[in-house]
Structure formats: structure tokens, C-alpha cells
Design a protein that fits this description.
Distance between the termini: 51 Å
Structural class: alpha/beta
Radius of gyration: 18 Å
Helix content: 40-55%
CATH topology of the largest domain: Dehydroquinate synthase-like, alpha domain
Largest sheet: 3 strands, parallel
Order of helices and strands: EHEHEEEHHHHHHHHHEEEEH
Number of domains: 2
Oligomer: single chain
Number of helices: 12
Bound molecules: nicotinamide-adenine-dinucleotide, zinc ion
Strand content: 5-15%
């Protein structure tokens, strides 16, 4: 089977291929930036049901992924932001040099410069695969890829997965909130937060965080954070950032709801 399309097409067709006759070969041709840098890589497949997102799925690797950047020419700005959020996440969790490259080149990504896009997509896939290959079934290290996603998930659920806030925009908000959490927990320094704010400002992405400058709005997300399926007990398992290009190890920062609320109250110091 060959799946051609965005992340949804990819996830559904890969899932079908993984269960038909107990699994047939699958080739993925992702056509959105998000699918090229994230969804098509790593072998997570699935369908959403009314019971919830990603509850039914398999781990099944494609035989081949072909990413052709000419597909991206017709992509809207909002969809470009979606993919960019995951590119930036990959730099933040693993590669300071790539982050520095993004500081200079993000504007060319949004302008769809083909050479820069190819570089960013390749780099992003390499970083994702680094984590996937070390922990295919997401028991530990692969969870690093969830940086920004605990709050992103809360934002998406609170907004009923409305198109007004895309996954990428929620991830951009989430990464900023979780960096602030890292800062109040003294896991990173103020410089990390400032570096992040700067790249958001340079690329007109700060709008994704503006609402959460008011910490009351962050607190309103807390009830939705709790239901994150990635958490295996009462505490919430956050991926926190140590510095640009490095996170704290997964499973090292499990926080109770009470603690989380206290940390959020300290956000307005920064
Ligand atoms: N399997 C994974 O590991 C993984 C990782 C991240 C995200 N995902 C999933 O991926 C999905 C999001 O992917 P997405 O952002 O690609 O969404 P999507 O598949 O909904 O595509 C976004 C929109 O772009 C359109 N589109 C696709 N290609 C286009 C092109 N070349 N030009 C113009 N428009 C185009 C689509 O029709 C759609 O309207 C979510 O369901 C998410 O759960 C999966
Ligand atoms: Zn994501």
C-alpha cells in the first residue's frame, strides 16, 4: 500500500496496511511539512474514534518514506507553522547547532526555500529517528519527543480540537509553557527562555503564547493536562528542558497537580 497525503492520511493508511492480512508493506509519501518532519517517521499508526484520539493504533514501520518538498508549495501558512513547530522542537530537545541554524534560516523555511526546507526536514528526521531507534515502543527515551506536548494536548482538548488552534500552534504554546516550568523548577536558566522567546518573535509566532502571558489561562488548562494518556500514574510526566539542545531525562520530572499549580503561580516572576 502507498499512502499519499498529510499526517491523517498517513496515519490511517499505515494503520490499514499494518492490520490487513496481519500486515502488508507500506510506503509513505507525506505531503505536508508536519508529516514530512514528524508523522511519517517513527512507525506510529492509528485512527481517531469518538472515544478519543490515537486510542486505536499500532507500531509499524513503513518500508520507505519519500518526502518531496515540491508538495509544500501549495501549503497554507498555518500548515507551515504546524510543521515548523515540530522542527523547532527537534532542535530544542537535541541539537543546539540546528537551533542556531534555525535562528538564521527560519524565515527561509516560511518562504519555502527548497534547499533550506530539505536541510531542515532531513535534520528533523534524523533527530526523530535518533529517539525512535533507541526506544521504538516509547517506554523511555522516545518520550523526549513529547516536549511541549503535555500542555499542547491540554490546549487541543480544551478547544475541542478546533481548527482555530492547530496542533503546531498548540505545541508552540506548550513548549513555551513547559520551558517556563523548567525555569521555575531551576532546570534551565532564564537565557533558555529568552532564546526561545527571541526565535518566536523573529518569526511572528509569539501570538501562540500571548494568551498564556496571563497565568490564569494556563491554570485553566490544568484539568485537561491530567488526562494525558502518556502518564501512567497520578503524577504528570513532563519533559523539561535543561538548555537549548538538551532535556532532562524522561520519567525524572513527575509532578503532582498541586505542585504544578504552585509552579504556575511563580511564572509571573519571569
Ligand atoms: N504518527 C505519528 O507519529 C504522528 C506524529 C505527529 C502527528 N500525527 C498526526 O498527523 C496528523 C496531522 O498531520 P497534518 O498536519 O499533515 O494534517 P492533515 O493530514 O490534516 O493535513 C492538513 C491539511 O493539509 C491538506 N494538505 C495535505 N497536503 C497538502 C499539500 N501538499 N498542499 C496543500 N494542502 C495539503 C490536507 O488536505 C489537510 O486539509 C494528526 O492527526 C496527528 O495526530 C501523527
Ligand atoms: Zn506533535
Amino acid at each position: 500500500m502507498i499512502g499519499i497525503g498529510g499526517g491523517i492520511t498517513g496515519d490511517v493508511s499505515a494503520f490499514a496496511a499494518s492490520i490487513f492480512k496481519r500486515g502488508i508493506n507500506f510506503i509513505s509519501i507525506p505531503t505536508t511539512l508536519l508529516a514530512q518532519v514528524d508523522a511519517a517517521i517513527g512507525g506510529k499508526t492509528g485512527v481517531n474514534t469518538k472515544q478519543g484520539k490515537n486510542l486505536i493504533g499500532t507500531f509499524s514501520q513503513p518500508r520507505l518514506v519519500i518526502s518531496d518538498t515540491s508538495f509544500l508549495k501549495s501549503l497554507s501558512k498555518k500548515e507551515m507553522v504546524c510543521g515548523y513547530a515540530e522542527i523547532l522542537k527537534h532542535a530544542l530537545i537535541k541539537d543546539n547547532k540546528f537551533f542556531n541554524w534555525l535562528k538564521l534560516n527560519s524565515k527561509h523555511i516560511f518562504l519555502k526555500n527548497q534547499k533550506k526546507l530539505i536541510y531542515a526536514i532531513k535534520k528533523s528526521c534524523e533527530i526523530k529517528l535518533f529517539f525512535v531507534n533507541k526506544d521504538v515502543n516509547e517506554k523511555n527515551l522516545r518520550m523526549t519527543l513529547n516536549f511541549g506536548h503535555t500542555f499542547a494536548h491540554a490546549i487541543e482538548v480544551k478547544n475541542n480540537y478546533s481548527k482555530n488552534v492547530t496542533h503546531g500552534e498548540a505545541v508552540l504554546s506548550g513548549m513555551m509553557i513547559e520551558t517556563k516550568l523548567s525555569l521555575v523548577k531551576k532546570i534551565c536558566t532564564l537565557k533558555t527562555l529568552k532564546d526561545l522567546e527571541k526565535i518566536y518573535n523573529q518569526n511572528n509566532l509569539f501570538y501562540t503564547f500571548e494568551k498564556y502571558l496571563n497565568i490564569k489561562n494556563i491554570k485553566k488548562l490544568v484539568p485537561y493536562v491530567k488526562n494525558d494518556k502518556k502518564n501512567d500514574d497520578e503524577k504528570i510526566n513532563f519533559i523539561l528542558i535543561r538548555k537549548i539542545g538538551k532535556t532532562a531525562p524522561p520519567n525524572k520530572n513527575k509532578i503532582t497537580i498541586i505542585q504544578l499549580k504552585k509552579y504556575i503561580s511563580n511564572f509571573n516572576k519571569y
